[in-house]
């Protein structure tokens, strides 16, 4: 339904009360711009909530997920962003250790 060419992970935590406009401003602050057909993932400080902003070239889509037990596997704060594959995003959304997948992540 929504074409996604690249998936980006913003490592610094964000306030999960933030709506689509605030998260889009965060995308611009962290990544420089919101590129069409790119997905941007954010988590709260405890990594129990995940929000994904997708710019589809016309507008933005916002998806949210919350884990009731455990947390999302999140990179250490040493880096600011990371690029994920689709398989890694699928694992991340399920709360699985996505870094262990065979395809390496690109850390910036």
From TrEMBL:
InterPro entries: Transposase_IS66_Orf2 (IPR008878). Pfam families: TnpB_IS66. This is IS66 family insertion sequence element accessory protein TnpB. It comes from Ramlibacter albus. The lineage of its organism: Bacteria, Pseudomonadati, Pseudomonadota, Betaproteobacteria, Burkholderiales. The gene is tnpB.
């Amino acid at each position: 339904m929504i074409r996604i060419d690249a998936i980006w992970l913003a490592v610094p935590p964000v306030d999960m009360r933030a709506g689509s406009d605030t998260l889009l401003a965060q995308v611009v602050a962290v990544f420089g711009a919101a590129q069409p057909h790119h997905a941007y993932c954010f988590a709260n400080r405890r990594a129990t909530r995940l929000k994904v902003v997708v710019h589809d070239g016309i507008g933005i889509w916002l998806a949210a997920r919350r884990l009731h037990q455990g947390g999302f596997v999140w990179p250490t704060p040493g880096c600011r962003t990371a690029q994920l594959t689709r398989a890694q995003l699928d694992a991340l959304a399920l709360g699985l250790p996505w870094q262990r997948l065979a395809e390496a992540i690109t850390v910036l």
